[in-house]
Structure to design on (150 residues):
């Protein structure tokens, strides 16, 4: 499986950048990972719609938008979902991380799925890091690697 993480804004703190690169490097053993960090829109009444449109334009795979109202799958369910998508000949998953205002209704309607990483509100940089770790975890589950324990 190939993955792309498309997000509004770049990781601002070095430890977030380092953590993201750590998991991207580990994920390379399972398939290519691309990180696309888009410039935030100038804060206006239309910034959410503009950022969402940019996310949709930049993404090219099966769209999973991270949203506080999405479903919260367990790690094993994420691994099963990836396997199911491969069986459907889907080879690229695009994870979308919105800006401070979240996603527009148009993006939510366009996305194949909405996922929530936590019931807690996470900063976008941390959400990106948690997402990469969970994708790595899912790939190790699929490979039978002992990284994940239940």
């Amino acid at each position: 499986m190939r993955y792309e993480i498309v997000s509004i804004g770049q990781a601002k703190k070095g430890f977030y950048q380092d953590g993201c690169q750590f998991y991207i490097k580990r994920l390379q053993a399972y398939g290519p990972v691309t990180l696309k960090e888009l410039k935030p829109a100038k804060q206006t009444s239309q910034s959410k719609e503009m950022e969402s449109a940019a996310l949709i334009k930049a993404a090219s795979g099966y769209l999973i938008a991270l949203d506080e109202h999405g479903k919260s799958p367990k790690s094993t369910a994420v691994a099963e979902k990836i396997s199911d998508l491969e069986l459907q000949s889907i080879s690229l998953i695009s994870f979308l991380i919105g800006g401070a205002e979240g996603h527009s209704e148009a993006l939510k309607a366009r996305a194949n799925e909405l996922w929530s990483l936590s019931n807690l509100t996470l900063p976008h940089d941390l959400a990106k890091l948690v997402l990469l770790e969970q994708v790595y975890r899912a790939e190790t589950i699929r490979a039978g690697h002992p990284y994940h324990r239940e």
